[in-house]
Every structure is written in structure tokens, then in C-alpha cells.
Amino acid sequence: MQLVHTPSAMATLAQQWREQGKKIALVPTMGWFHEGHLALMRRARQEADQVVVSLFVNPMQFGPHEDLTAYPRDLQRDTELAAGVGVDVLYAPSVQEMYPAGFQTSVRVARLGKGLCGASRPGHFDGVCTVVMKLLHQSCPHLAIFGEKDFQQLAVIRRMALDLNLPVEIIAHPTVREDSGLALSSRNKYLRPDEMEQARCLYRAIVFAREKARAATCALPAKDLCREIQENIEQYEGCKVDFVAIVENDTLENCEAVNENSRLIMAVTINNKVRLIDNASLLSAELL
Ligand code: PAF
Questions:
Q1: pLDDT for position 287
Q2: Looking at ligand 1, which residue's alpha carbon is closest to its atom 1?
Q3: I need a surface site. Which of 7, 19, 118, 281 has the fewest CB within 10 A?
Q4: How far apart are CA 99 and CA 259, in angstroms?
Q5: What is the pLDDT, as a whole number, of residue 243?
Q6: Is the pTM of this model over 0.85?
Q7: Ligand 1 atom with the shortest distance to the CA of 54
Q8: CATH code of the domain containing 28
Q9: What residue's CA is closest to ligand 1, atom 8?
Q10: How many angstroms does the Cα of residue 28 sit away from the middle of ligand 1?
């Protein structure tokens, strides 16, 4: 596996692969790899000839009081993990290379990026779109793979790719969970063992909501179910709902009543310390 640190070296390599007719896959990440990331990399390995994994903790998507400096980083550890699943290039540019002095452009997906996580993290999705756009330009992939755990991010990126005619296929990969149901996330590293137990309130809420939705014999108002989900989560000490929403899968508009296309999306803060997100389809046979 090759380690690449500059946008120009990445672009040169991608150009060579393109000339050789190779299919390129990009997996954008912020590092501190876990099984969820490795699943995306394995998927990329199946889909393409050349697999690029970007590793960049993107300052532009963190708010002023968020965890940019605390975000876990370990290039050596991540290099070994990526090499172990057959990645061709680990692309880890510096902040100076990505945002040189004078940088002032951003990409905004107006409506999709505003609500849900966008409401509590203003500007977050502008930062995500801008960096993903740059990574796509630098690595010229035919396809890019994103996890469904960040469901709003996936919707925003799909919209950006469509709106800006980006010649790249956006592929979604299912959330990877611990046996307990907790969705894997780099931010789980902030949790003590007792807090890991508290964090399972998100998965318990998903199971609760899916059971309610599937048992309903008539139209189930989404607002009522959201209220019950919030109560279900907040019965556990230290678990505070940021938002719970039931939205249409594609548009992320609020649903009036639960339907085949409904998705539960939520963000919960554990002990005023770690904000976790999760989502699931409410009526699909499988927990997608
Ligand atoms: O999902 C992430 O890790 C980040 O938001 C991404 C897509 C790598 C952009 O920085």
C-alpha cells in the first residue's frame, strides 16, 4: 500500500490509473478505523481495481466547540489496518495542503443539509460537501462509498453529486453494529465501558420503534411515535435526545404517518459528553 500526502501526487496517480483503464474507488474517512470503515474498504476492493482511502480530519466540518482537537488520530495504526484489507493508496493530506492560505470556497446543499444534524451543527454539511468535492477531484474515482450510519450525510452527498453532475457513482453501505446493536463509530472511543452500556439506548429505541411500527393496525402518526421514542431513550440516566425524527428515506422530509418509506433518524448525547447518531428503516423486513 502506498501512502500519499499531497493532492498533486494523488491526482497524478489517479490520472495514470485512468489512462490504464483502471476502475477507481474512493472511501472517504476521518481515520481511527473500526470494522465499519474496514467493511467499506472491503466493499471498494470488490467493486474496483484501485482502492483509495482518504484519511483527513476535516476542520471545516467541526463547529467551534466540537471535538476537532480531541478526535482520535493514529496514522500508524490506520496504515496497518488499511493495508490488511488490501487498500492500494492511503491518502492522508495535511490541513495546509487541503486548505491553503486564502481558501474561501464552500459547497452547500441548501435544504437537505439544514435540518436534523444540520440544525444542531450549523455549517457541518457545508464542510462535508466541500471536502468530499475536493477529495473526488483529487482522486478521480468512478465510485465513492459511504456508510449508511451517517444517513443525512449520504443524502446530502447524493444530492450534491446529482446537482453538480459529478461523474461518480455514490454507493451506500449498511451500518456495521456491535453484537449489542451499538453502531460502530470512531466517537465510541470517547465512551467509558459504563457509557457504552448507556449508548445502547439508541439501538433499543430502534428495536422499540420497529416493533411499534410493525404492530400498528392503522395509520401511526409519526409525531406520536417520535414522542414515545424520546421517552424510551430518556428513561435511561444520562441519555439526552438531541433530535428524533421520522422522515422519508429519499427527501428527509418529515413523515405525517409511518409508511414503507419511513426512516427513524436520531441523535443522542451521552452524559452531556458524546453525541451519537443512528438511523434505521422502520418497516423493512431487515434492519437497514
Ligand atoms: O463520514 C466521515 O467520516 C466524514 O464526514 C467524511 C465523509 C470523510 C468527510 O470528511
A1: 76
A2: 29
A3: 19
A4: 43
A5: 98
A6: yes
A7: 8
A8: 3.40.50.620
A9: 29
A10: 6
Q: Is the pLDDT of residue 264 over 90?
A: yes
Domain, as residue range, for 162: 2-173
pLDDT of amino acid 286: 79
Q: Which residues are catalytic?
A: 37
Q: Judge if 16 and 87 occupy the same domain.
A: yes
Q: Say what percent of the chain tops pLDDT 70.
A: 100
pLDDT in tens, 124-151: 999 999 999 999 999 999 999 999 999 9
Helix then strand then coil, % of the chain, to nearest 5: 40, 20, 40
* Same-domain pairing of 190 and 166: no
Q: Are strands 50-55 and 89-91 parallel, antiparallel or unpaired?
A: parallel
* Closest protein CA for atom 3 of ligand 1: 29
- 254 and 131 within one domain: no
Atom of ligand 1 nearest to the CA of 147: 1
Please, which pLDDT band fits residue 285 given cuts at 50, 70 and 90?
confident
User: How many Å apart are CA 138 and CA 174, to the nearest integer?
Assistant: 26
Ligand 1 atom nearest residue 128's Cα: 9
Domain final position from 173, 208, 239: 173
Strand positions, DSSP E, the chain: 2-4, 24-29, 50-55, 89-91, 143-147, 169-173, 239-248, 262-270, 274-281
